[in-house]
Each structure stands twice: as C-alpha cells, then as structure tokens.
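To close the section, here is one more complete example, presented without commentary so you can practise reading it yourself. The ligand is iron/sulfur cluster.
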Amino acid sequence: MAEKIKIAQYWGAGCGGCDVALLDIDAKILDVHAIANVVFWPIGFDGKVKDLEALPDKSITVSFYNGAIRNSENEHIAKLMRRKSVIMIAFGSCACYGGTPGLANVTNRAEVFETVYKNTQSTDNPNSVMPQTHTKVKEGELELPEFYDTVKMLEDVVDVDYYMPGCPPTVNLIAMAVDAVAQHVTKGAPLPPKGAVIASDKTLCDECKRERVEKNRRIDKIYQAYEIKPDPKKCLLDQGIICIGPATRAGCGAMCPNANMPCRGCMGPTRAVTDQGASMLSAVTSLLNITDSESKISEEQIMEMMMQVKDPLGTFYAFCLPKSPLKRAVTEKKKKWKG
Ligand code: SF4
Ligand code: SF4
Ligand code: SF4
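Output:
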C-alpha cells in the first residue's frame, strides 16, 4: 500500500465549528483514514507546537487552517503550517474572509480590552489590569500572544492554495475536497487551479428553489426574520426580509432559505463581486419602493426606509468585513479625535 499522506488542522480565531464540521463527514472520514495520517490537530489530540516545528519542511501534504488571524500566535502557526505544508487550505469563512470575528474591525484592541476587562457587568477588575504579552512571576516569565488591532484573513499572512468557505463548510464541500485530494494522491488526478474556491461559481439565488418576482421587483417595508411568517415558497427578499443570496456564492444548497431563514452570506462573495456588503446594499436600495413618479422622495424618507435595517454592518458584512475594500474602520482619526 502506498505511503499515507500527512494532513494537519488548526483552529485560529474562530468558534471551533470548523473542527467539528471535519468530523461531521461521517463515513467519509474512513476515506481520509485510508489515505492520510493526521500529524497535527490540537483540538483532536494533544499536539504541541514543537511537534509541528519538528516536522521537515513540506512534509505535510494538506493543511486546513480555520479561524481568522487575531493574534501573534495565530500568525505564527499559520506561517509554520505554510512552511511545513505542500497545500494550504483556508477552511471556513473566518479563514477565507475574516468571518464573524472580522466584525471587530469596527473597533480596536484598546476598545475591545476596555469593554471585556472593565466594562462588562460580570467583570471585577478594580485595578484595571489588562493582558500583557510578558508578565514576570516568581516562577519565571509568562508570555501571552499579542492581540492585534485588526482581524486578518489567512491570505493576509501566508500564501493560500485553496479556499473552502462556509460557516462552517458543508459536509458536501468537505467531501468534495477529500475526494479531490484522494483522487490526486491515488490516481494522479489534477488538482483544481491554485487560488480556486471549493464551492460553486453561481449565486445562492441560482440554487435556491424559492419563486422570485421577475419584473418590477419592489418591497415596501423591510422586516426582521422574526417579524413575519414568510410564505415558504416565495423569495424572502421579495417578502421584505433581507436575504444576502444575490451577493453570495452558491454551494451550501441554500440551506437557510430552505429552513425559512434568510441567507447571512457565509459562503462569501461570488467571483463577480468584490464587496459582498456593498453589492447587497445596492441590491436592497434598488428594491425599495421608489418609483419614477416618486423620484422627488426626500433624503429623509430614504433614510427612514434604510433605518429599517436594524444592524447594517451585521446584516451586510456578517462574514466578510476584512475581505471587503473597507477592511476595517479608520482608527487613526479615531485616535486623533480622542486627542
Ligand atoms: S467559519 Fe464559522 S464555524 Fe468556522 S470557525 Fe469561523 S465562525 Fe466557527
Ligand atoms: S434572495 Fe434569498 S430567498 Fe430569494 S431567491 Fe435568493 S437566496 Fe432565495
Ligand atoms: S444559506 Fe447563506 S448563510 Fe446559510 S449556509 Fe448558505 S451561504 Fe451560509
């Protein structure tokens, strides 16, 4: 039997769901076992950084990195894995686009620490002690990773070969990737071109079965998903619920609309879209019931309509703020304003 390939998995700034997703592939895990040995997976078994450091460069065939880059440890491991691996896959939306941790890019480290270590109700910190990267104790010096101001994507710190979006990636997409690697290893089948996104190139609306209004699409009011009971057959956007499907890459099987919930955009932007949030914002504004005869509608009225979107950032940029041209809110000016 041919020698098994080596795979590794690491959890950066994320929720752990991507690690669980890898186990969710059920019997497919046997295909993984047949061709691969897992050499580093801290959440799966007791792996240490020194185990990874001890491996020869390029000795890991495929590394799956999930989570965003939030601190110096995440970046260090990402760089180490890159050095040790032939193929590096950004696994999940946090690694691909910054994901939900990326929403913290509207603020900075000082403000995050201020909230977490001082201003939460459950915090008892009378001396305002904040995390330090180095602390001397009688036993020696303790070291913590440096917490960054800005949440980054994996590609901001290392060269990425493939992207597998989703929060977490679906079982089908993981199985597709496992098959591609297995075919490559056992039969020499070619891998997808470098930089490929392991998902569909279509939009989510293309794989959604809900009926859409084809002409003169208009909405009068924007609703939160819990405010109305939507018609299960009709497009949620046509019913006034913001569904990010038009600006989102297909590949999940339209899971959320199938469950009567709007898409939040976790598969990230399609190839044709640079800024998922701006693209969706523009789609929504074009749907608002402003006809030619009402072209004299005031700015206040437009603002009133848009104010119906309760959480614009979380609605339009839930998974992709670090990937967007915005990347983060300006911090320099904020600092100046604060003097
Ligand atoms: S992509 Fe989603 S499931 Fe994966 S680590 Fe990020 S938040 Fe968790
Ligand atoms: S907007 Fe949402 S509900 Fe409507 S077709 Fe697209 S994915 Fe389906
Ligand atoms: S429907 Fe949207 S939010 Fe739901 S899994 Fe698919 S891409 Fe993600």
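Once you have examined the tokens, check your reading against these statements. The pocket of iron/sulfur cluster (ligand 3) is lined by residues 204, 248, 252, 254-256, 263-267 (CB under 6 Å). The first strand starts at residue 5 and ends at 11.
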